[in-house]
């Protein structure tokens, strides 16, 4: 049986209403017509005439009314004198006499477009990408640097300005290859094109468009298309901000790494000018020396690729003679510090393997190690011409071997190096704590006595006295005693001031004759003295550190290239026109780290901005005179000749292991990043943990 639903009811109701309305309208139209017909002819004519008149008046008045309506529409926005503000999302300019909000110190602010979204804030190293690289949770171990993830800036083509400033000799190198020249030209054209795209002109001001935040290409992409020679875009960061400077260090590292990766991958050193490589030990020296720097700088892709090489390619089972000291500070130190930063057992395994292969060096009659050891054969020997070892070399492997023992719980490593320190501690022949430069591996006695320096062959002996004391929790009194005595010896016999400007420097002593000569290597000393003062030693050490820091700075600032020579001579005559003199044979610069190392320590302890500025100047000079187009930095022959500094075609591994690392740390605002209360840097800038002292 059918029963109407609610839907049916609504349909019926709607259709009734519709027909009612229709009928009503029809009815209304019919009654109007009837009424019109009932009017007289005169009445109808008057009504029609009136309608026509109204129509004419309406047509005549339309233009002025319509104009008036248009004006009214715009009047609410009359404050916007220039709609381009809106296009750029800018606030309207302030009325005359109103100061911009930013105040006088930022006069350009009203001309700037909106700040780019998230302008690269996370500039600190970021947590590791893989679980096996998680920071250590255990006691006494360095946590991986914390911080938000790094935003990699998109890389822009090499600035034309820079290209023009390339010194003549480097330009020659560039021009020597037609391909390279053509590439450079193409890059310049691309840059011009890019510049056009980047800029938006607004009332004469050139304003940057959005900043890119593209990540670096992956390792695979790199293989397919090697990245161009580019400079990182730091324009979004305030000029001279520490973040911008850190970014500039990253950029320098990437540039150096690009050269190494393309022309020297897995080899010891890059020869950046000839775009080839050099071998010293055949152990990928630069790659390993640079591992922890990449980690600290947050260069995760580069680090991952290098790690893979260590895992798959690095083998110490080789018939190769290596220098005990260099291999220890650069390779063993690099592996140990990378292990501490990453907690990746790969690096500890490699360190153990290497450490055990270096042990034969200590099998000598005196227990003073030989300089060379064959990793594959397990044999060791002194240099061919002598039975002597260099003093700095045998006393600057201790931090690394002691740490290896702590990590492996195998005392053999620390036993051999502690024995060396014990022997040297009680050895006669020191001069108020100063030590000769050689020690005989047969007799265990100092040789070539009478010459004292804090430069080559002795430098890191002094450094490691203090640093071992700090590493061990400041309980090994013999180390401290030797260090304090040595610094007194330095003050008494080696410290002098120049005649003209009273610059304090550390000279040398040769059979009681003072020589006003200072190696650049000695510039580690301000940092070491400051570190000692920080750990509770006398303030007099800090005073000396500050004075020596000024001198090391002058060794750069007074050179035409802004780069220090390898050795400086100082004038003691007040009448002399210059404090710093450079002999022709000493004019080279090897991209050494000691001055920026000390700047890092002094900034950490004083917070004086000038130390950062000095470091920044040095980085600029490296970029101007040692940067090789296409990738890499080179040692140079002549720091006094800015037109032809004379590239040497060699990038030392310590440029990546030390120089750039210390520059990066110098510009870091995070004083807990590798805190100097928690880590001690070995002489190759590899941070190792300070041990928790045993309970007393
Ligand atoms: C580095 O290998 C080490 O810093 C060493 O102690 C001295 N020489 C170089 C850097 O100049």
Bound molecules: 1-deoxymannojirimycin
Segments where pLDDT lies below 50 for 5+ residues? 1-30, 61-166, 168-232
- Annotation, overall tally of beta strands: 22
Q: What radius of gyration results from the CA coordinates?
A: 38 Å
Structural class determined from secondary elements = mainly alpha
How are the strands of the largest sheet arranged? Answer: 7-8-9
Largest sheet: 3 strands, antiparallel
In whole angstroms, the N-to-C terminal distance is 103 Å
Helix content: 40-55%
Beta-strand content bin: 5-15%
Instruction: Report the principal-axis shape.
Output: elongated
Mean pLDDT comes to 77
Total count of helical runs of at least 4 residues: 23
Oligomer: single chain
Could you give the topology of this structure?
Blueprint: H1 6-38, H2 41-75, H3 84-87, E1 155-157, H4 160-165, H5 168-175, H6 178-198, E2 199-202, E3 205-208, H7 219-224, E4 230-232, H8 242-263, E5 269-271, E6 276-278, H9 285-289, H10 291-297, H11 300-312, E7 321-323, H12 324-342, H13 345-358, E8 372-374, E9 379-381, E10 388-390, H14 391-394, H15 398-408, H16 412-425, E11 438-440, E12 446-447, E13 451-452, H17 459-471, H18 477-494, E14 495-497, E15 504-506, E16 508-510, E17 513-515, E18 517-519, H19 525-534, H20 539-557, E19 567-570, E20 580-581, H21 594-606, H22 609-625, H23 653-666, E21 679-681, E22 687-689
Antiparallel strand pairs: 1-4, 2-3, 5-6, 7-8, 8-9, 10-11, 11-12, 13-16, 14-15, 16-17, 18-19, 19-20, 21-22
Helix pairs in contact: 8-23, 10-11, 10-12, 10-23, 12-13, 12-15, 13-15, 15-16, 17-18, 19-20, 19-21, 20-21, 21-22, 21-23
The structure holds 1-deoxymannojirimycin (DMJ).
The site of 1-deoxymannojirimycin has 8 residues, from helix 23.
